[in-house]
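Help!! Second protein's tokens look totally different from the first
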Amino acid sequence: MLRGEVFKALESVRKKKTLKHPREAQVRITGEKPWLKFLQDNSLTWANFFRVSQVVVAYELSPAAWRSERLPGLQVEVVPAEGPACERCRFHSTTVGKTPGFPNLCQRCAQVLAI
């Protein structure tokens, strides 16, 4: 259910033509107490789970944030991801170009190719 709600927020941004693909997105997500703890406890897995470049678990979002009707207390905001796109995986990252010898790759892809 959580993934579906985030996808609804992503789709609304895509329809507005703000972003073309979820890989270009940073998802900012928050919720009331039970949601917030669950989101924080699993914060390292969300970007991969939602197939977006970045996920930030926030305490507060802008008033324009998308509010879930099916999951009360959950709020999602989609903004452009930080950093350039990696030439290998196409996800945006602030680590692109930081690994010597791999000027156009994110740190994760550079580690894979360095093996």
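Here's the second one for comparison:
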Amino acid sequence: MSKVALITGVGPGTGAALARRFSSGGFRVAMIARDADRLSMLEAEIPASLGIAVDVTDSEALDAAIARVERDLGVPEIVIHNAVGGVFGNFQQIEPEALERNFQVNVMALLHLARRCTPAMVEAGRGCLIASGNTSAFRGKPNFAGFAPTKAAQRILAEAIARELGPKGVHVAFVMIDAVIDLAWTRALRPDAPDAYFIQPADIAEEIWHVAHQPRSAWSFNVEVRPFGEVW
């Protein structure tokens, strides 16, 4: 039976690219997102896939979705938390409730996924949990006050989980995307930017595939990807 990969935040960019990459690599793919129509379209495109419309901040609904994945596809061997909550504005401008919700998406959902999915990985002696992050996890710029604190917390949580589960045979990694992802809305925001300015979702997916399949003697935790012209 094919292995199972579970991916949250399956939108039109990185999430969909991840679903396609893991499917092409022989995985049954479980796709979690809020947009049921998009998931239906991806189900029709991607063989042996299952789309479940869930808000990852609803822990009971997320738990039920994972149970359905286990029943219909199998126990996930790879879990990728790609769902993201963000808002722009400095600390005076943001609504405190927005920061709280972003924390629920970025941090608490990762915690719930880890608690729910990694025990089976530990029992099997193999598995992988990956969080897709970004530069905000390492620095707090003024207009990212509603976002950066949650991504920093996500990275530290992932590191704590990695230190716990690594010796038990489960690979945990944080993939930091230092770039603007090539999407219709990001292109609209930067209509004069050259193609080389953007990072391609398929290229992100390829690197995450690589991280998920690293040999046990050379596991990475902090992984950084950026376009060749990115200033850093």
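Reply: Different proteins will give different token patterns, so don't panic. The chain has a mean pLDDT of 96.
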